[in-house]
Amino acid sequence: MRAVIEAEVWRLVAQYFSGLPPGSAFPGLERLTGECYLSAERYWVQDEPWFAKVGRQREVCLSFFVRCLERQTAFNTSDRDYLGLEVHFRWLRESVRFQWTATDSSSI
After folding, report:
1. Mean pLDDT, residues 10-28 taken together
2. Which pLDDT score is estimated for 46?
């Protein structure tokens, strides 16, 4: 299952980049090398007392943090992380599958 989720993370990262308009201020596509790596992952259960009152069930949530590298433009710099993406999923217990919920971006 992990390999399936990870493949979906990379597919969604590629989708994020393909949806950016040319010349966008951030992230600047011309600054990216095309290299990304998985830097962290997080799992948690979202369960609130009011869920049952509105017909919601507890949710198992997953987030994967991806770092995308920029072209090195200055000498003596080793940190090339430029863009951070967080890809969010929730586990659908009834259908035994996961569902993408959002992709958030941030400068690093």
Report:
1. 84
2. 85
